[in-house]
Amino acid sequence: MIKISSKNVDVFYGKKQALFNINLDIEENQVTALIGPSGCGKSTFLRCLNRMNDVIDICRVKGQIIINDFDINDKSCDVVRLREKIGMVFQKPNPFPKTIYENISYGPTIHGMAQSKNEMDEIVETSLKKAALWEEVQDRLHEPGTGLSGGQQQRLCIARAISVKPEVILMDEPCSALDPIATAQIEELIDELKKDHTIIIVTHSMAQAARVSQNTGFFHLGELIEHGSTDKIFKNPENKKTQDYITGRFG
Amino acid sequence: MNLILFTFIVLLGFTSYYFGRKKAYTIQYTKKRLTALPQFYGYYLAIWCAIPAFIIFSLWAIFEPTIVKLLILSDYSNQGYLDNELNLIYEKIKSLSRGQFTGEITPFIEASAKKYINLRSIAQSSKVVIVLSAIIASGAYAYKRISSNSRTREPVEKFLKAVLFTASLAAILTTVGIIFSLIFQTIDFFKVIPLFDFVFGTHWYPAKAFVRDSSEALDPSMYSDTFGAVPIFAGTFFIAFIAMCVAIPIGLMSGIYLAEYASIKVRQYAKPLIEILAGIPTVVYGFFAALTVGPFLKEIGNSMGLDVSAESALAAGGVMGIMIIPFISSLSDDVITSVPQSLRDGSYAMGATKSETIKKVIFPAALPGIVGSILLGVSRAIGETMIVVMASGLAANLTLNPLESTSTITAQIVVILIGDQAFGDPKTQAAFALGMSLFLVTLCLNIVALRVVKKYREKYE
Q: Quick one: fold of A26-39+78-220+230-246?
């Protein structure tokens, strides 16, 4: 089933066009990987999906992005609700300089999701459990989140993102600042999370895309060159550029 | 003469740099590898040429007058003069030698004046000779030592380190000197006025101490109820409190606006404009407070049926607050801007609005820096003098009514030290005691501010 469908999306930074006419459908409860060389626009596209480009003054987005039959670029779209439904995990772990507990309870508090302390405790516990972090931090919930290791911090950020029960989770190179063991843990986690969430992951590592994703889109110079099932993209790409990139001839 | 010699040393230092470098180039030309870049050879030679000469020159300048004086006055040593009489005679001799003395002259003094002129010229010429030979000797020594395998980089680096060390030492020694002068005078003050009376007395009237004549001056009972510092401490903190009531909200909010809401263009113009406030001399704020704000408040008060003094704590504190706004706004703007963008992104991505993000993420993250900037503002408010002297009156009333006049530590120091004063007088020493307490208060504030900032510095990252 199609969860997100982007139609004729163009993105401009000032006068410079960063994305050209992107048409991409994203399947529900699957992992979609966006790959491509640096500066190809894959992160920009990801940030369109929860309107994070609004934060950048000079950025303009054209075209339609339909989520649940609703165009999020429409004026009537409530960005706060949108971002509640579409969570995001960033390249560098960015826990707030607060305790582990407060990091998780941040979103639910903003959206008024818990009526009592008990409910909040439960949300924190389930989120941490889902992010496979509960075992490691259950005794130190009230210590600063910044004191965790890099991999733990990133799982904390994932826990923070899923605390508001989003339908979609966007991941912008979530493992690029992590060591191989932490990366493996996160990848395992992604596989687990796709049961409840639709996941879109931007990655530089083609091995990672092949390991975690069911669908893959290849971006080059602001254009979506090819997209389809990961198997097909990696084993039998239609476009020559895709083939060159996959085989490591450029990028 | 000294100036010429000094210029000569400096010039020679510069030229020797080129000689040193040139020799290094020559060595390089013969295909020998140097141990350092040619510049280092230049610096090495310049240091060797100028520094020993400069040290001799300075020592000479320091000791010459003393030695000449000793030599001249040795003629008078067994004539039974007192020390200050000798000093007087010496001053006579000196002015006579310059041809400026017009009073009565004894032949003996005239002879001394001739001897003085003689000694000075000998001293001058021998100074030139010694300094020049020092330059030549040390310069030649260093020049000879320059060879392909001589070490020049290390001595030059060591020398630079020593120069930097001396500079910081000078700053530290000055601070220590100031503290000691404060301490000794303060101790003298507390010998006359009991510490208890100073700290807990509620009546401050130092002028009372001054009218007494000096023979009575050491009778402590005269000063009871004269140097009670409570009213001026209270006044200081009260005015600082009013100032911070103005400066913290306005400064902080404008800092947040500049950092988070203002577009690049607005920020570009608004920030320098606010910082101009910091460049206005405090005396200008002073007459703004005394001539504009004070009378204005008085008029408003009168129209509301309140009795407002033209010199009120409110006028002084309010204007002082305006003066402190740029410190708080600029510093907190910097602190807020330096909160990593990733934290903002993280918060926005959770669906937080701008104000929620600021309140719950940015502000707590920036809090240590903001507290630091506020404490710096407080220590400025406490140390501020001119505005208070001009706008808040000089009578040390013990009051918590912002519409009355009150006085501060700094203003009282000004009052005490303006005009006639005698050293060793408790009234003068009171200024040192006040200065000491002011110093202690601001020192504590600064230490706390630095601690706070440092403790939370590495919180994010």
A: Rossmann fold (3.40.50)
